Amino acid sequence: MEVVIRPDADAAAGLVARIIAMELRANPHLVLGLATGRTMESVYRVLVKMHRKEKLDFSLCSTFNLDEYVGLAPDDPHSYRHYMNEHLFRHVNIDPRNTHLPNGQAPDLEAECRSYEAAIARFGGIDLQLLGIGRAGHIGFNEPLSALHSRTRVKALAPLTLKQNAESFGGEANVPRRAITMGVGTILECRRGLLLATGAEKAEIIAKAVEGPITSMISATALQLHARCTVVVDDTAASRLEGSEYYRRIFATEPEWEQFRNLE
């Protein structure tokens, strides 16, 4: 795992977007795993801007989202399909047929989960997986006690997750109780992981995820096992990290980050 600390949320999101753009330019057929949530909106805004101003080309890439709420139709304004359409897909030249999310209204949810896993395999696996982290430490909707080898499945949402998402639904009572999510094992099979977290409210869980013991109670800790995972945080989200001085030095001196330093 590698940690990069940027001065503020915009700088952190901008770096993540530039990493995605670099990977997409290197491999136009990139299979990109996507995440949702307020933190990701800034990333998608930068990617849309790069598409419009720098001709960043999405025409040959494919996407797989981490999760979707059970019971929501794709055109429901609270669905993640709607979120992706509004924040990214309809603003770039991606082929809608190559954008994939679980079907939260599937009549057989277990069959839908198996089908989603099969589709990821059919596309050759995920090259770059974008991730956020919930306050419960989840990646995707892999709530506490998610098995580290778990596959795409239906999960009941934890109380903290319901509370965290309540504002978007106009109250906790309106938040769906279940979601289809890629499993921790599914996520760990990506070729590169890229996690973004910003804000003081994420500082404690980021410290546990990055520097704490690996535990199924905090599914993000499993990323410590990944051969190539980059965690990008802003100063406030990094405030509880014990190794922050070392992490800052890596970005300031290592050759792989030179092209990104020069953009600042």
Characterise this structure:
With 264 residues, this protein is of the alpha/beta class. 36% of the residues lie in helices and 16% in strands. It has a seven-stranded parallel sheet. A three-stranded antiparallel sheet has the order 4-8-7, with helices on one face. Helix 1 crosses helix 2. The longest helix is centred in the first third of the chain and has 18 residues, at 9-26. It is globular and about 55 Å long. The chain starts with a strand and ends with a helix.
User: What structural category characterises the helix and strand content?
Assistant: alpha/beta
Q: Please provide the ordered H/E string of secondary-structure elements.
A: EHEHEEHEHEEHEHEHEHH
Q: How many runs of DSSP E, i.e. beta strands?
A: 10
Nearest-integer average pLDDT: 97
Q: List low-pLDDT spans.
A: none
Tally of contiguous helical segments? 9
Evaluate the radius of gyration.
17 Å
What best-fitting shape do the alpha-carbon axes yield?
Answer: globular
